[in-house]
Amino acid sequence: MYCTVVTSSRSAGIGNGLTYESLGQETLGSAVRVPLRNRIVEGIIVGLKEEQAQKDYDLRKVQELLDEKPLLTSSQIATAQWMSQYYMTTMRQALGVWLPPPPWSRVLPKETIGYKQGTAPLDILRGKRQIIVAEYVTGKEWVSQDEVQRAVGATTDILRLLKKKGVISEERRREVRAQEWKDPINELPKLTPAQEAAVEFIRKDTRPSLLFGVTGSGKTEIYAQLIADTVREGKRAILLVPEILLTEHSIDRFERLLKREAIAVIHSKLTERARREEWKRIRSGAVSLVIGSRSALFAPVRDLGCIILDEEHEWTYKNEQTPRYHARETAEVLARNSGARLLLGSATPSLESWARAKNGMYNLVRLPVRFQEQPMPTVRIVDLADVKFGKLYPFSPPLIEAIGERLKKGEQSVLFLNRRGIASALLCLKCRRRVVCKESELPFTVHHTSNGRPYLLDHSTGIIAEVPATCPHCQSTELKAVGAGTQKVEALLKTLFPSARLIRADRDTMQDALGMRRILSAMRERRADILLGTQSVVKGLDLPQVTLAAVLLADLGLSLPHFRAGERVFQLLTQLTGRSGRAMPGEVIIQTFRPDAPEVLAASMHETEKYLNDELKLRIYGEYPPAATMIRFIVKVEGAEKRAKKLFADTQKAIMEERSDAKVYVSPTFFGGNREWHVLVRGSSLRPLLRHLDLQDVTVDVDPMETL
Ligand code: ADP
Ligand code: ZN
Fold first, then answer.
1. What's the CA-to-centroid distance between 425 and ligand 2, angstroms?
2. What is the C-alpha end-to-end distance of the chain, expressed in Å?
3. Among 438-452, 542-556, 642-656, which range has the highest average pLDDT?
4. CA torsion angle for 608, 609, 611, 612 (degrees, to 10)?
5. Which pLDDT score, from 0 to 100, does residue 648 have?
6. How far is CA 167 from the centre of its chain?
7. Which residues contact 14 (CB under 8 A, 6 or more apart)?
8. Of 89, 347, 381, nearest to 222 (Cα)?
9. Which end of the chain lies in a sparser environment, N or C, as judged by fewer CB atoms within 10 Å?
10. Residue 474 alpha carbon to ligand 2 centre in Å
11. Structure confidence at residue 562 (pLDDT)
């Protein structure tokens, strides 16, 4: 037997593993020690074969198997293989997300010394104590040193002597710690008939299911039921959420479902050590449910029965570092490899999932009504171009009135802010002039992409520009964005409503789960009237007393030349409508400069399905994902422009040679100055093109989310 071993050492050129002669005990995923040059290094088995393709007489042998139990299961190894092929990385890079940092022996259970019966007969013994100890060990499969010492008072001297005489033999074993929970279920959910029907649809289909449920329909209860199903079958589940710190309330929900000891919560704030401990605990089998953000998909869960992605449309499921995987795609492969069920849940499915549901690859399960048939909120659109603000920008009179009404009735409001506050002008501190759009001569406003990179937007023309390094009027470098930041909005609210109890929720006030908990309980216990938060923080909250949700400026991204921009705005606006009226009738206000945008209209009428179908038609017509595949080559080397243009030309040549329908573009990236360029290819089948291209010094992003 031969095996392919990916070693923990990062030497170049062996990222896909080396061949060794096997010990005969390894399986896929086993951790081993192997010789590499003049050292012994750790490795993991990623392939096993009977025969060697070419005979290699210098073939070295695996030195040692670290643990009888493999570190990763064969389905996990197969999924890593898929990742390395699909996302074009080495196997070591793909495995990197599945394993804690080496040495891997650290994550194995500790070794325990123990004894078995030896080859020599007992009657060679004289001493009474020796005989007692030897008799205790004889006939047992294996006894730990601890046990013989406790049971019959064996001293280390006696044990050493018996070993020397061959009456007993020493054997080290890995401690078995699997504290499996016979019945980890605390309390089953009580489903409504609509939820019950949805669960039945999911249960009886073997395809991945897309649970398309309006906001407030109780998707969480459905997840809980499926997790309970899985645990009852003696299997385990993974629940992925877009961002773990924002998921406090749903973690509470699962702690009511399962015993706390049977749950592992993985998040980015864990120390490396805590992460390793959780990894060990999960691998030992003690955990029935792993909850976490995208990387929790790679937890060492055996007997995986179910993977759930909550809010499957969220962009945080895409990893923007090598390996640049998408958790949804990868989950689909892992589920298939492990025979596990896959459930994707969303009120605004991604176009990718929607297309698959439409063509029958996914089982589409609808949950069209809110829990207890609560009506969807009414939505008002305020055209900001019509409003004379005076000093009150960005509060329009209808919004001020609506907030005032809530205060009078003792109900609550949630206000969505853009990521870092409201559109502001770019002001030169030297000449005191604002940076204006050349076309309209109106001041640009400063915006931020989801990655926090700033850009300029002229709302009247939709023209976009980079943030200049110097003032176009006086060349000073002292440019500053001024306008309504979160703090300014907060101050304005205080003057408008002096008696209102206000909470601000953004990344700074909510560094951790505790901050989130505090805010949630203040709102639930009515110790606050208004929650002012950045969009990413407040979009998922379940607060029953909120009857007004408003977005102060809903233009973010609408004008960016990005084929997913509209989808994203639509998702955000629908999340906004999801915050209001969850337990009593509610209202939503959308303030925007673009009242006629299809995203704004569809979200205001709760026409998600129509929006998705229309958008899908546009993608098909324009040959954009999901109607085509897309690959992005990012060039960041010295002389990026020249290199990118060469790659562009090579790609064009490859397209001709392969008679491909692919389209290719080259440009500097929007935010990379001129130092970063990219080549974007899209078409029905791109893989055949790749073998014509030299991609050594290029970052390959398969199915990119970021295309600007
Ligand atoms: P979604 O995630 O679909 O927006 P949630 O799962 O947050 O909706 O549910 C909305 C609200 O309705 C929550 O407060 C939840 O506790 C409640 N709810 C939903 N289904 C049930 C149920 N079967 N029994 C009790 N409460 C439910
Ligand atoms: Zn100036």
1. 13
2. 49
3. 642-656
4. 110
5. 97
6. 56
7. 6, 7
8. 347
9. N
10. 4
11. 78
Task: Kindly report, residue by residue over 345-363, the tens digit of the pLDDT.
Answer: 999 999 999 999 999 999 9
Distance CA 545, CA 528 (A): 11
Orientation angle between helical segments 193-203 and 219-232, nearest 10 degrees: 50
Q: Is 583 in the pocket of ligand 1 (CB under 6 A)?
A: no
Task: Indicate whether 321 pLDDT > 90.
Answer: yes
- Asked whether the predicted pLDDT for residue 178 surpasses 60, the reply is no
Comparison of pLDDT for 305 and 472, the residue scoring more:
305
The Å distance, Cα 385 to ligand 2 centre, comes to 27
Our mutation pick for probing the ligand 1 site, out of 221, 248, 251, counting the most ligand atoms within 8 A of Cβ, is: 221
Pair type for strands 699-702 and 629-635: antiparallel
| Contacts for 131 with CB less than 8 Å, ≥ 6 apart | 122, 125
Judged against a pLDDT cut of 90, whether residue 301 lies above it is answered with yes
pLDDT tens column, 595-628: 888 999 999 999 999 999 999 999 999 999 999 9
Q: Residue 292 — φ and ψ, nearest 5°?
A: 180, 175
- pLDDT at res. 270: 83
Atom of ligand 1 minimally distant from the CA of 217 = 3
Nearest atom (ligand 1) to Cα of 195:
23
Has residue 385 got a pLDDT over 90? no
Nearest CA to ligand 1 atom 13: 218
Q: What spacing in Å lies between the alpha carbon of 65 and ligand 2's midpoint?
A: 68
Q: How many CB atoms lie within 10 A of CB 346?
A: 23
Write a three-state SS string for 414-447. EEEECCCCCCEEEEECCCCCECECCCCCCECEEE
Cis omega (within 30 of 0) for bond into 103: yes
Q: How far is the CA of 475 from the centre of ligand 2 (A)?
A: 6
Ligand 1: does its nearest atom lie under 6 Å from the Cβ of 190? yes
Question: What is the pLDDT confidence band of residue 516, given thresholds at 50, 70 and 90?
Answer: confident
Report the distance separating Cα 190 and Cα 199, nearest Å.
Answer: 12
Is 216 close to ligand 1, i.e. is its CB under 6 Å away? yes
| Ranges of H-type helices in 233-325 | 248-257, 272-283
d(CA 379, CA 683): 39
